[in-house]
UniProtKB/TrEMBL annotation, chain B:
One of its GO terms (biological process) is amino acid transport. This is Amino acid ABC transporter permease. GO terms for cellular component: ATP-binding cassette (ABC) transporter complex. Residues 158-347 form the ABC transmembrane type-1 domain. NCBIfam families: HEQRo_perm_3TM. The keyword Magnesium does not apply. Belongs to the binding-protein-dependent transport system permease family. HisMQ subfamily. Keywords: Cell membrane, Membrane, Transmembrane, Transmembrane helix, Transport.
Length: 397, 367
């Protein structure tokens, strides 16, 4: 039987090989990578030429050199004879302290605003709405400027400072607070407080497990009282009951003693937390309203009070909705600490991308260092919050 | 438990209508809320009248710094005296009509966007999208059609805020769409590039990107190839926001049912034809509220350009209150209140528009 020379109608017509999808995809990708490589090479070679022309050596060797500047706010010991490397770490710690304080305060204010927003009290709910719409729609940088240049800087000098019961003083030099001086006994007392906290937490956890297993509630209030009050205070009393405070006192033109929160730091914390709290409040409101009203009605039918319904029924479920966008807001707060450089708070941008870059001319390295820092912080926050999310989304205790 | 065993109340139900009932239900539902209402009302009565006095009654509306210091309230005279600078920056006064004309063109395009029923709306918007940047460049920068060149370092104030914001939005959207498509691409090389681009730009603050644009970009370019400072900032803003937009657009792409892709392929469409005519129109429609929220963020972020030495609205206000002619605490506060009000109106208006859109777009989907 002669084989037909006609094309088989069941076979697709012959195509040129470059229109076949796998080959075309490979060609596009190779082309894309080649273009990218060429572009990167172009940028790098230009950078090398430009740096060589300006006489700047590339690399991170400059980090070992003497910095020669002071840092007004530092939680590490830093002097002008330290290296750029130490300046970097000082800036890292400053940024982290600001982020952590900001996140803590923003969470507290934000949850309060979010709960107020769903309050049955019309006045409270309206006020929370005004708070959210005001602070959410004004640029953060403007708010930082406002707190710093319009509120804190024009405050009276230390001689006429605003004071609270003669203990806390607020002036244009900052917020002066008493500083506890911990002797050995007080330190032991603090250690006992930590131990008591651990004991109370363990007992509370056991009670929770017992309730989950048997359905019977078990009181733990006395464990909290023992752990947080009786144990530390008895240790402290037994060791002599001494607590010395260093009080801020006006001497000459400024305060001596105590501890100070400088205006830059105060403005940065206030601005960041108030701004992010507006977004957190909105997230909390959305989370609470995202819980089916049937849950609330069922709890009401069982005779629970409004506070109990919120605490045991609505909030635990709402957390599952709240945490993912909350993570974004925490990351945003950590990134926004960079704006504090505009009000002279010594964080990564002002120390590394500002002073260090101006002094050394190492633009590429300093900006890369700053970006690497923020990248690490963002990833870290995402990891922590993902863990927390995993904790609240799994069903068992 | 006490609640549950209480006898059922037998007296007649209370009135359930009228303002008095509203007050009782919303302000005094129980004694705790009632106490809260009273305390908060008292605080408001203490706080609001002085604020009103400061803003309006005791404010100095005209005059000089001395009048403001004497008045004891807000210093609106400062805003009046610097109004031209706040709006146009250092743009030469005799050429300000060019800025006005550009703003008019912008407002007209936006008005078309807002109007519910306009013939060929899509084409008009697309045309405006393509033509507006050219018109704005020719009018604002000049050098063509016999218009005198106004270098970008003379631009400033509200006008610069608008330029940065609009350029950021217009540049970021197409880039963001490409990045979002690339992130979902089946080609690993393109996907990896897009994912790393998006994730890196989302993890770092805008300031570092602006620093990169203003300090590192000149190093990247060949010698003698100078790029305008404003243009570098715009590039930084656009790249940064493209990464944010890409994530919003990706959300829209993920919401498109698989059947749409399959139907388009079955109809013999290629990748681009399918994306442009079938997928993107639906995806972008669902994410319009998200895009508008990103626009609000972009407007707020424009203030950061002052850190690299451009004078946007906040930058010019900041410069004004630091000038020796107007140095006074009330001027400082008034300046920030004014700038804050300007940004607030823009951002609040846009976010309300986004909510309105969300409701409007939902009508077809509501079950």
């Amino acid at each position: 039987m002669p084989v037909s020379r006609d094309p088989d109608p069941m076979q697709p017509p012959r195509q040129p090989f470059w229109t076949r999808s796998r080959i075309r995809s490979a060609i596009i990708q190779v082309g894309f990578v080649a273009l990218l490589a060429f572009f990167v090479h172009f940028l790098l070679s230009n950078t090398m030429t430009n740096l060589a022309r300006q006489g700047i050596a590339s690399g991170f060797g400059f980090l070992e050199n003497r910095a020669g500047f002071d840092i007004a706010i530092s939680f590490l010991d830093f002097g002008r004879n330290d290296t750029y490397m130490r300046a970097f770490w000082t800036a890292v710690v400053n940024t982290l302290v600001l982020s952590v304080l900001g996140i803590a305060l923003a969470t507290v204010i934000g949850f309060m605003i979010g709960l107020a927003r769903v309050s049955p009290n019309w006045l409270i709910s309206r006020l929370a709405a005004v708070y959210i719409e005001t602070f959410r729609n004004i640029p953060l940088l403007l708010q930082l400027f406002f707190w710093y240049f319009a509120i804190l800087r024009p405050l009276p000098g230390p001689r006429d400072s605003l004071d609270l019961a003669g203990i806390v003083f607020l002036s244009n030099r900052g917020l002066y607070l008493p500083k506890p001086l911990l002797d050995a006994g007080a330190q032991l007392g603090l250690a006992a407080l930590g131990l008591g906290l651990v004991i109370a937490l363990v007992m509370a956890r056991r009670a929770r497990r017992y309730r989950a297993a048997t359905g019977q509630p078990r009181r733990v209030a006395h464990w909290w009282f023992l752990g947080l009050v009786v144990l530390p205070s008895s240790v402290w009393l037994a060791t002599g009951a001494r607590l010395d405070m260093s009080m801020p006192e006006l001497q000459g033109f400024n305060f001596r003693g105590g501890m100070v929160v400088l205006p830059e730091m105060l403005a940065a914390i206030l601005g960041l937390s108030i701004y992010i709290a507006a977004a957190v409040g909105e997230i909390v409101r959305a989370g609470i309203q995202g819980i089916d009203h049937g849950q609330t009605e069922a709890a009401q039918a069982m005779g629970h009070t409004r506070g109990q319904i919120m605490r045991y029924v609505v909030i635990p479920q709402a957390m599952r909705i709240i945490i993912p966008p909350l993570t974004t807001q925490y990351q945003s707060l950590a990134k926004n600490t960079s704006l504090a450089s505009a009000i002279a708070f010594p964080e990564i941008i002002s120390i590394i991308a500002g002073t260090t870059m101006t002094q050394t001319g190492q633009a590429v390295e300093t900006i890369a260092l700053a970006m690497l820092f923020y990248l690490t912080v963002s990833l870290f926050i995402a990891a922590v919050m993902n863990f927390f999310n995993w904790r609240v989304t799994r069903l068992s205790f | 438990m006490a609640e549950a065993t209480r006898p059922i109340p037998t007296n007649a139900p209370r009135a359930v209508a009228g303002p008095l009932d509203w007050v009782r239900r919303n302000l005094f539902p129980d004694w705790r809320q009632g106490l809260l209402t009273i305390v908060v009302s008292w605080l408001l009565l203490r706080a609001v009248p002085p604020l009103f006095d400061w803003l309006i009654l005791e404010a100095a509306w005209t005059g000089t710094r001395e009048d403001c210091v004497a008045a004891g309230g807000a210093c609106w005279a400062f805003v009046g005296a610097r109004w031209g600078q706040f709006i146009y920056g250092f743009y030469p006064p005799e050429h300000r009509w060019r800025v006005d004309l550009t703003m008019l063109a912008l407002v007209a395009s936006i008005a078309v966007l807002f109007l519910p029923r306009v013939a060929h709306k899509g084409w008009i918007i697309t045309g405006a999208f393509l033509v507006l940047p050219v018109v704005a460049y020719v009018l604002l920068h000049g050098g063509l059609l016999g218009l005198e060149v106004v270098p970008t370092d003379r631009w400033g104030g509200f006008m610069l805020t608008l330029v940065v914001a609009v350029a950021g939005m217009m540049g970021a959207l197409p880039l963001g769409i490409l990045l979002a498509l690339g992130r979902r691409s089946k080609m690993p090389a393109i996907r990896i590039f897009c994912v790393s681009f998006i994730e890196i730009f989302r993890a770092v603050p805008l300031i570092t990107v602006l620093f990169m644009a203003s300090v590192m970009l000149p190093l990247f370019l060949p010698q003698g190839f100078a790029m305008d400072k404003l243009l570098r900032a715009l590039l930084g803003v656009a790249l940064f926001n493209a990464a944010l937009m890409a994530e919003v657009v990706r959300g829209g792409l993920q919401a498109i049912p698989r059947g749409q892709f399959e139907a388009a392929t079955a109809a013999g469409m290629g990748y681009w034809k399918m994306m442009v005519f079938i997928i993107l129109p639906q995806a972008l429609r669902t994410v319009i509220p998200g895009l508008v929220n990103t626009y609000v963020a972009i407007i707020k972020d424009t203030t950061l350009v002052l850190i690299i030495g451009l004078f946007d609205l906040l930058g010019i206000v900041q410069a004004g209150i630091s000038s020796s002619a107007w140095l006074a605490p009330s001027v400082t506060t008034t300046g920030y209140v004014f700038a804050g009000l300007g940004f607030w109106l823009l951002c609040f208006g846009l976010s309300r528009y986004s909510m309105h859109l969300e409701r409007k777009l939902n009508t077809g989907r509501r079950r």
